[in-house]
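A further point concerns the way the authors explain their paired sequence and structure data. Showing the layout once, in full, would remove most of the difficulty. For illustration, here is how one protein appears when written out as sequence plus structure tokens:
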Amino acid sequence: MPVESNYERTILKILFSACSRYNIIIEKPLFDLITEDKKKYRPDFILTFNKKKIFIEVLGSSSTDYLTHKHYISQIAKSECYRYISVKAYELQSCYHSFVAELKELLEQLNKKSRM
């Protein structure tokens, strides 16, 4: 799977590990996606689990322009996916456990709902 940075490669490894016990599709969009009202967006990763889409954004910078663009994607995500999760890859050591815990908790919730 092509990735755009070492940050994304690291997060992708985490996703593979966290998702290994579930039947999850992990996608890395290569091209922009378009909303019904013609807005372009491209999340870093899309997880599809039980017909629910989860957007994963890897924040690789803290510059204003970069964060503005990522904020735009987070706003689109409100209507385009079930859950949006962002992780500051440049601060991964301090937020690794909370990112993995949030992801695993979400997957477990979706798994429980699918068995009901």
